[in-house]
Amino acid sequence: MRTILALILACTFEPTLSAQDPTIRPFRIEVAEKALADLHPRLSATRWPDQIPNTKWQYGTDLATLRDLVHHWEEGYNWRAREKRLNTLSQFKTVLDGIDLHFVHVRSPHSKATPLVLVHGWPGSAFEFQKIIPMLTQPEKHGGKAADAFHVVCPSLPGFAFSSAPVEPGWSNDHSAEVVAKLMARLDYEKYLAQGGDWGASIVRWLADHDGAHCLGAHSNMPMAGRPGNDPWKNVSREERNRWEQRNAELRPHKAYMNLQGTRPLTLGYGLNDSPVGLAAWILDKFWAWSDHRGDLQNSFSKDELVDNIMIYWISGSMPSAMRIYYETFNRQPRPKSMSPFLKSGPPAPLGFALFPKEINVPPRAWVQRQFGKRMVHWSEMLRGGHFAALETPELLAKDIRAFFAKIRP
């Protein structure tokens, strides 16, 4: 579908632009009617599989849940209204290292606000931050103070959504992180804070490790620490151990996606790029496994929010290229030739973490402290919420970002 993207979106990317063209161009999502007309027959012609009676999610995405969401997609969902809503966010594109990078950029009305880059992961997008952005740019309207304000930048990672797909091997999470650092420099943000989950968690940690002269600190809602090999339960409470063991047991049947996307992404990509319901099933399975829905996804997300996320992948045709970040990261390859140099700068920046109970990884605090030492200056444990914190529990995440920054503010 990437090959016919010009028929789907009124994009402003000119193929003649150089790999490092510094121009920043306004962008709007404008899906052609032809693309919408193509979508609905595909939905209505779905060949639904069977499901064993009295099973729910044991074998994969629940049939009844998916059929209900697809019915809403066909009958109740209004893309034009949702498109208009998404376009209330100021969006731009610029070419960096051969990638026509899409990003949201919302400046705070407070002139002394601190730049903050929010980095998404898979299967999310820059638009999962739409609820939290006003809480960060105008905190005084959301329980904070004007001194806590941020200018917010939300890039679409290379190959995701409206950023162009890499045409070379080697675009790992680290190389995506380089592009994020270069974007902040292009926006003339000399100092900035970084926040992310999922792939965004590893990317903002890279920024803190390698761009410390500019990155003031990195906050993540996905602690990356694993089980230590030596005396792992030292300074770990029984409650923390039980939580870690229980979450591991819950997610043990949900790990095949990572192996498949990390080894055969293109094989999977054919089906996900051709079938909107197949795409929805693949994405919905992760929203179910990784959110604090208590048995009903609508406790965490509205149907429109779920379909928005699916639609962004569908209309951009970006699922095959987005999945490649797994392959590129798990199978390290030479640096892409299109990438300009990047020089590590400054000492490593401080780190902060917010642990949500239905996150993929819920390590004890002692494990994270053991890995990062004095660099870890902030730790919070939430009573509710999951992997998609900015979309599911934006108030909690915004409050914690402000609390972390208060600790490291110059």
Describe the structure in your own words:
There is one protein chain. The chain has 410 residues and is α/β, with parallel strands linked by helices. It has a single domain, classed as Alpha/Beta hydrolase fold, catalytic domain (Rossmann fold, 3-Layer(aba) Sandwich). 41% of the residues lie in helices and 13% in strands. It has 16 helices and 9 strands. The protein has helices at residues 5-8, 33-44, 63-75, 79-86, 133-137, 173-186, 199-210, 238-251, 256-263, 265-274, 276-289, 303-316, 319-330, 365-372, 389-392, 394-408, and strands spanning 24-27, 91-96, 99-106, 114-119, 150-155, 192-196, 215-220, 351-355, 376-381. A 9-stranded mixed β-sheet has the order 1-2-3-5-4-6-7-8-9, sandwiched between helices. Strand 4 (114-119), helix 5 and strand 5 (150-155) form a beta-alpha-beta unit. Helix 6 packs across helix 7 (199-210), helix 9 (256-263) packs across helix 13 (319-330) and helix 11 packs across helix 12 (303-316). The longest helix has 15 residues, at 394-408. Mean pLDDT is 94; it is low at 1-16.
Query: What's the helical proportion of residues?
Result: 40-55%
Instruction: Output the CATH topology.
Output: Rossmann fold
Order of helices and strands: HEHHHEEEHEHEHEHHHHHHEHEHH
Instruction: Kindly state the number of beta strands.
Output: 9
The end-to-end span amounts to: 47 Å
* CATH architecture group name: 3-Layer(aba) Sandwich
Rough outline: globular
Class per helix and strand makeup: alpha/beta
The CATH homology group name: Alpha/Beta hydrolase fold, catalytic domain
CATH C-level: Alpha Beta
Q: What count of structural domains?
A: 1
**Mean pLDDT figure:** 94
Biggest sheet descriptor: 9 strands, mixed
Strand order of the largest sheet: 1-2-3-5-4-6-7-8-9
Number of helices: 16
* Radius of gyration, taken over Cα atoms and rounded to an integer in Å: 21 Å
Query: What fraction of residues sit in β-strands?
Result: 5-15%
Are there runs of 5+ residues with pLDDT below 50, and where?
1-16
